[in-house]
Amino acid sequence: AGLCGPSPSSSTPGAEQREKQYRAHRGFGDRRGGVISARTYFYADEAKCDQHMETFLRCIDASGGSSEDGFSAIKLTALGRPQFLLQFSEVLVKWRRFFHQMAAEQGQAGRAVLEMKLEAEKLQEALANLGIATKAESQHWFTGENLGVSGTVDLLDWNSLIDSRTKLSKLLLVPNVQTGQLEPLLSRFTEEEDLQMKRMLQRMDVLAKRATEKGVRLMVDAEQSYFQPAISRLTLEMQRRFNRDQAIIFNTYQCYLKEAYDNVTVDVELSRREGWHFGTKLVRGAYMEQERERAAQIGYEDPINPTYEKTNEMYHRCLDYILEEIKHSRKANVMVASHNEDTVKFTLRRMMALGIHPSEKKVYFGQLLGMCDQITFPLGQAGFPVYKYVPYGPVNEVLPYLSRRAQENRGFVQRANRERDLLWREVKRRLLAGSLFSPNH
């Protein structure tokens, strides 16, 4: 099967540090530093973004023409100005942190994110006390179709208030933790920035429509954590529109992030409530060195899990949650993008235990072309949907990426040696059995 991918509150401790993550920083203007296994796009101008879109369109066409169930991967930083993603991410994080502040004040700190439910009455009082909105003004916020029916507001209800369709974000003021002053949630975009944002959304729309026409699933790659809230939010908007009947748009979750499980569970719950098909690619993550260095230099909490073992635990926890969702609703889909044999074995065991058959095509596996064939081929022969990830793009842009991957780490060399040993063992077995050239093997 074919897959194409672009090669690449004052009461809340550390709250003011958190915002630093979402500010542009001169020292990290070149986002390639320490990044081996992902390609980096830089904003030149809108024409260059259009060129990237055309390349993505050609990849979608190629993927649709070579496979019935193809995938194509895209990066949102190739389709618009990253500064917009940075600003939008800060807005989303401020809004979510404000919810957690309110929850803490209602005695709910430490609860699982989806178990935090704010009493609408108390929430309206808090908003009035903070001078954000009078009770009369906020009354209609919590009387929508789903809001306030139960008298409580959870994170999904809260997030829906900032939906671009309501334009509420333009009116809202939230407390600035450092100054204690109220400030607009969304810093005013210039007219040009507003146009850049619209053009980015239009390009995403063009790609999603082409993918739907060609029967190709579109995977939106994860990027640096300071862009990711915006990338995930924009991808969710596409999923709402295009995943009504089947999973066409896939979001990517990086399991080396401490917040990965919260992000997965919140988004799965949103898909349940709204009735669309959840599609995801699970990866460990490609920006660890750069993320850690940036956090240390700028002075905010390291967003990455402390150890590789913790990342493995996070990957399996997120994966298990999605597999359970597949069992219960049959409306979730997951791409297990991993070269880790233990993760593949874990997935196969859980699929068997939950009664998820490979022929349902709800669980896919993906490895890079030229790597880990000892995982890919047995999966394919056993009837599992398995894909090879093929980097694409102009030669002069793709070659540096490929050369970095070739020298990526010694682990791949060790696996290549293991693969060679397995192949040699199989050749000897066939020689001894007298079946080296048998068509049945």
Relevant terms:
441 residues, alpha/beta, two-stranded antiparallel sheet, 15 helices, globular
Task: Chart the SSEs and their pairings.
Blueprint: E1 2-6, H1 15-20, H2 46-66, E2 71-74, H3 82-105, E3 118-119, H4 120-129, H5 135-139, E4 152-153, H6 155-160, E5 173-175, E6 182-184, H7 191-214, E7 217-220, H8 228-242, E8 249-254, H9 260-274, E9 278-283, H10 288-298, H11 308-329, E10 332-337, H12 341-354, E11 363-368, H13 373-381, E12 386-392, H14 395-406, H15 410-433
Parallel strand pairs: 1-2, 1-12, 2-7, 7-8, 8-9, 9-10, 10-11, 11-12
Antiparallel strand pairs: 3-4, 5-6
From the alpha-carbon coordinates, what is the Rg to the nearest angstrom? 23 Å
Structural class: alpha/beta
| Beta-strand content bin | 5-15%
By DSSP (H or I, 4+ residues per run), the number of helices equals 15
Task: Explain what you see.
The protein has helices at 15-20, 46-66, 82-105, 120-129, 135-139, 155-160, 191-214, 228-242, 260-274, 288-298, 308-329, 341-354, 373-381, 395-406, 410-433; strands at 2-6, 71-74, 118-119, 152-153, 173-175, 182-184, 217-220, 249-254, 278-283, 332-337, 363-368, 386-392. It is built from 15 helices and twelve strands. Helix 9 links the parallel strand 8 (249-254) and strand 9 (278-283). Strands 1-2-7-8-9-10-11-12 form an eight-stranded parallel β-barrel, surrounded by eight helices. A two-stranded antiparallel sheet has the order 3-4. Helix 2 (46-66) packs parallel to helix 7 (191-214). By secondary structure, it is an alpha/beta fold. 49% of the residues lie in helices and 12% in strands.
